[in-house]
Design goal:
single chain; 352 residues; two-stranded antiparallel sheet; globular
C-alpha cells in the first residue's frame, strides 16, 4: 500500500490534502520503527565499544627456514598469498585488507593482482609486530585488526567474521581468536595447541599438552577437547602494546605467545566453531573424514551424536553462529612437494 493512497482526497482550507486517521497511525508506526532501529544501532555500537572499523592484515615474508619464498609459491596457477587475500576479501566484517611485507618481490606480486601493500622493516620478529608496524602506516584509523596468516589459502571467511564479531560483542576483551574440535588421536601432539574456555566464552589457558588432563592419563573420547586455530584479532589500542609486553614464564615454558596476554591479566574472547583452517604450517593430517560443526549454546556431545546419526543441520540462530555440518580434510605443507596436497583438495572442492 502506498502512503499517498492513505491521504484523503478532500482538501483543507489551505488546499492541501487531509490526513486520515489510518494514514496518521501508519506514518506514526513507520517513524517509530525507524527511531527504534536507530536506537538499537546506537546500542549495538555502544555494546561493541564503537569497534566498527576493521582491517585485515596479512603479514608475509620471503625468508623462512621451513619454506623459503612460500607466499609466492603457485597453487593452481595463483600465488599462495593471492589465494589467501582473495579468501580474506570474502569476509563481510573487514573494511580493508592489506598485505604487510618486507620483501619487494612479494610486494610487486601483490600489487599485480590488486592488493594494497604496506612495506615493513626486516626487523619484525613475528607477524604480530609486522601487523603493528603496518597499522601505524595506514592513513585511515581502525578499531580492530585481524592478523590473517599468509599461508592459509583456504581460510574460511566465516571464521574471520567470527573472531571479529566475538571481539565486538565483548567490550571487556582486547583479543579474540578461534577454537575448534580436537580429534582424540591428536590429544598428545605438541603441534596441536589445546585450550580451555570458561562458560562465558573467555580463554582460561592454552597448552601444547592435553588439557584438561584426567587422572587416567588417557584421552577421554567423550570429552569435547578444543583445538586453537591461529587466527587472531586485537583492538588497535592493545596491538600497540602487545609486542612490547615482556615474555612471560608461561609463554616461555609452553612456547605460546598468546599466553602472555592472559598472564598479564587481559581478557581474550573465543569464537567457537568446528570448522578447521587448512593451514600450510600447522596441520599435518592426511584425510581425516571427520564431521565438524559450529555451535554455541547447544550441547556439544548431543549435537555430535545427532550428526553421527544422520541428522542434517542447515543453520540455526545461536549467539556464536550456525550449526553447520562440514566434511573437512586437514593438510599440512612444510615443503614445496606438499603443495600438491592442497591443490588436490581444491580440485575436489572446485576451487580454482
Amino acid at each position: 500500500m502506498k502512503i499517498c493512497s492513505l491521504l484523503s482526497s478532500s482538501s483543507s482550507e489551505g488546499g492541501g490534502p487531509v490526513m486520515s486517521g489510518k494514514a496518521w497511525w501508519f506514518i506514526h508506526a513507520v517513524a517509530a520503527t525507524a527511531v527504534a532501529a536507530g536506537a538499537h544501532a546506537v546500542i549495538r555500537r555502544h555494546r561493541s565499544g564503537l569497534r566498527g572499523r576493521v582491517v585485515g592484515i596479512i603479514p608475509a615474508r620471503f625468508a623462512s627456514s621451513r619454506f623459503q619464498g612460500k607466499p609466492l609459491v603457485e597453487i593452481l596457477g595463483k600465488p599462495m598469498i593471492q589465494r589467501t587475500w582473495e579468501r580474506a576479501k570474502l569476509a563481510t566484517t573487514l573494511d580493508h585488507v592489506v598485505v604487510a611485507t618486507d620483501d619487494e618481490k612479494i610486494a610487486e606480486c601483490c600489487r599485480g593482482f590488486g592488493a594494497d601493500v604496506v612495506m615493513t622493516s626486516e626487523s619484525c620478529r613475528n607477524g604480530t609486530e609486522r601487523c603493528n608496524e603496518a597499522l601505524q602506516k595506514l592513513e585511515k584509523k581502525y578499531d580492530i585488526v585481524v592478523n590473517i596468516q599468509g599461508d592459509e589459502p583456504l581460510i574460511e571467511p566465516e571464521i574471520i567474521d567470527g573472531v571479529v564479531k566475538a571481539l565486538q560483542r565483548a567490550p571487556d576483551a582486547v583479543f579474540s581468536t578461534a577454537v575448534t574440535s580436537l580429534k582424540p588421536e591428536d590429544g598428545f601432539d605438541p603441534n596441536r595447541v589445546k585450550c580451555v574456555v570458561d562458560n562465558r566464552g573467555y580463554a582460561i589457558y592454552f597448552s601444547r599438552g592435553l588439557i584438561p588432563y584426567n587422572k587416567s592419563g588417557k584421552v577421554n573420547p567423550n570429552f569435547p577437547y578444543m583445538l586453537h586455530l591461529g587466527i587472531q584479532s586485537y583492538t588497535t589500542k592493545f596491538l600497540k602494546i602487545y609486542p612490547e609486553l615482556p615474555p612471560s614464564p608461561l609463554q616461555l615454558e609452553e612456547d605460546l605467545e598468546q599466553l602472555k596476554v592472559l598472564e598479564n591479566g587481559y581478557k581474550m574472547k573465543f569464537f567457537k566453531c568446528l570448522k578447521r583452517l587448512e593451514c600450510f604450517q600447522v596441520l599435518q593430517d592426511g584425510k581425516s573424514g571427520c564431521v565438524d560443526f559450529k555451535y554455541s549454546r547447544l550441547d556439544w556431545l548431543f549435537v555430535r551424536q545427532l550428526i553421527e546419526n544422520g541428522v542434517e543441520f542447515q543453520g540455526g540462530g545461536t549467539q556464536d553462529g550456525q550449526v553447520i555440518k562440514v566434511d573437512h580434510e586437514a593438510h599440512g605443507v612444510d615443503i614445496p612437494e606438499d603443495v600438491a596436497k592442497i591443490e588436490s583438495l581444491m580440485r575436489e572442492r572446485n576451487i580454482y
